[in-house]
């Protein structure tokens, strides 16, 4: 067989010569092919990276179906549509206590959910927090999630969070309540960002299984891309942002079996936060759950007991909120469907886009349960 091959190329000497002439050509074409394929692959990753970071359509029907709080034992809620400054309409729930007076007196938790699904998927967790902490709960579906308009991005979601904060601080029932941000995974990054930028508005921050930054998480999620993290347009640099939080108490809830976000990310965030605050005051609290994975840490035994214990010390004992006068620039427009458990009422402009001074005139106790009572527009079955 070897004789036939050598004869074909004209003998051994000619065969070696032919091979040497062929190698540079083969190397050239293989190199060009590799570069083209790699560039194409990186281009596809770059173009579609937001779809990878924000899988808003998962699980199925997440963009069409959003559960109601009343389906989980929370009948007193407003279904809110907020228009952001860049003209995107996002959806949210303001889940209230049984009466307006109770709502005004209770703290308010703003819930920032993880990167898949919508706010409706988190209602069972919101119910536990609602009961354990005795708080109001404001939830939102970021742009591009649930029934909200638009497409998700870091800049857009920051605007969504700030718009939600503006709404809470302009609403007559929540304008002077103590406010706590709660974030899971990606929602933790959103929570850190909004608290770092508006620390005086918050009485507490709760973080579960969040990360240092998107580029630093890529090697553990997609190892093949660990050398091209510089291409990431989405940063969510919580490692840097958390160092700007100097006075807000923080509760860290870490699942040690987290298969998505490496637990050392949470630990490092905790250490950075602790450096900024006096540990003697126990303002920065670490709780770990040895069997907790990325998605089931919140169902581990004692999870909500830990939240309730921290809440009692950090939030209930905190000084009353004093309006800062730093909000009000966005003037987000909103409309709301109000639920009393049976009827859902449609009301234009729930917060009436009032200024901070107008809000202060109204609170506390200026609005009675009978003021501006809406007319029932429709009745829906929960």
From TrEMBL:
GO MF term set: palmitoyl-(protein) hydrolase activity
Keyword field: Hydrolase, Membrane, Transmembrane, Transmembrane helix
User: Is the keyword NAD in the record?
Assistant: no
Q: Where is the Serine aminopeptidase S33 domain positioned along the sequence?
A: 113-227
Q: Spell out the Gene3D superfamilies in the cross-references.
A: alpha/beta hydrolase
Q: Which residues form a coiled coil?
A: none
**Annotated stretches, region: Disordered:** 355-382
Listed GO CC annotations: membrane
- Tell whether Hydrolase is among the UniProt keywords: yes
Q: Which residues cross the membrane?
A: 26-48
What PANTHER family does the record point to? ALPHA/BETA HYDROLASE DOMAIN-CONTAINING PROTEIN, PROTEIN ABHD13
Q: What is this protein called?
A: Alpha/beta-hydrolase
